[in-house]
Amino acid sequence: MNNLNLYRLVKAVSNAMDLISKEVVGHNRQVAYITFELAREMGLGKDLIKKATLAGLIHDLGIFYLGQDYSDLRFDQKDNRHAEVGYILAEENFPDEDIAKIIRYHHHDWDELTAGSAGGAGESVNREQLLLSNIIFMANIVVNLAARRKRKNILLARDQISHRIEGIPAGRVNNEILAAFTALQEREYFWLDLTDKKRCLMALDDFFNGSNGSLVQEKFLQLGQLTGYIIDFRSSFTATHTSGVAGIAEKLAEDRGFEQERTALLKLSGYFHDIGKLAVPEDILEKPESLTDDEWSIMRTHTYHTYHCLNTGDELQEIRDWASYHHERLSGDGYPFQISGEELSQEARIMAVADVFTALTEDRPYRRGLDYDKVKKILQEMARDRALDEDLVAAVTDDFTEVNSLRFNVQNKAGEYYQEFAAESQELLQRD
User: Fold this and answer.
1) How far apart are CA 420 and CA 397, in angstroms?
2) What does the alpha-carbon distance between residue 319 and residue 348 come to, in Å, rounded to a whole number?
3) Where a domain ends, among 181, 197, 214?
4) 229-274: per-residue pLDDT in tens?
5) What is the count of structural domains for the chain?
6) Residues 6+ apart with CB under 8 A from 153
7) Which residues lie closer than 8 Å to 88 by C-beta, 6 or more apart?
8) Average pLDDT of 146-168?
């Protein structure tokens, strides 16, 4: 496997973003679906359709850092600044730099964009990118109107939705986009697909399965790091955890003579391993004391969600398994699948040790990282209980200083980026 499919990785991230609230599940994929259909109806080229759809899948990337209620779609407006925050995060970390620009302007009116008054948009972004942003803007309007419809049957509600679209003031949406929607809204399949969350993705799958959109190693690791930031930056309690796990997993793989490609895929799994934690409420993630039984049962679901978020294509099966099995144990007492013994690959065992080692040695807001003696005792007990692989535990304890130094350096670098990102985001959010 020399390359990984960009669409399938982005779809995994989008799947996780939809876990944040049951009330808004499917929002990203619905916006992506309408964006895709509008772009096709407008006769845009394949490359532009891809960019628009990928941006649509993660257009609300910045919403996780605003410390607010996700229980409905009221966050989805320009004044919320989440598009700007998403731009900051994606600009340096998404493999295609155009995606960040498209995300940035997805809540701006067309006249505002083309006049260059949207934060200098007319100067820094070309017309095609602005058009794709405005398509997502239009898709958001339709999705939000559909979510608020009074009639459950979408076919009975479409006339009301279309009437509301006709009332959009001139200049908010590009005329080509409005014309494309006018044509689409006449077709029943469009509305039926829109309200079938699985079918939304099937339409996109059909398109991307026939297109070349693979990533070389450097690029898929870049997307993996972005995913790690999405997971970690949501909570100060885990602001650099994913980076630490990925770094240690990479070292253990290298020390065991894994070939470069397999090592890179294992590192990518480290970036994705906690993606299911987007389904866990922040008050549970940030609770300094012991979790209640109910809270712990919710926390334990994160590996299950990681598995299904990454279940987007055959080529991701190994990454899916390595990432989601990090709480499985050799004894069979882990979760969520109770896999044991020889069923756990070397890569899954590495991920488990990297996760525990990082959790024990990293600083948390409520405690300092544990010292060598305490870490060694805990890890060796887990090895004796057949929770962790004995040889891998010996590897990290015998070489503790080097492994822990690597973890510290990787997490320190991620922490510096987190502080810069947090400061820039807060400054942005405080603007008038």
Assistant:
1) 33
2) 9
3) 214
4) 888 877 766 778 999 999 999 999 999 999 999 999 999 999 999 9
5) 2
6) none
7) 62, 421, 424, 425, 428
8) 88
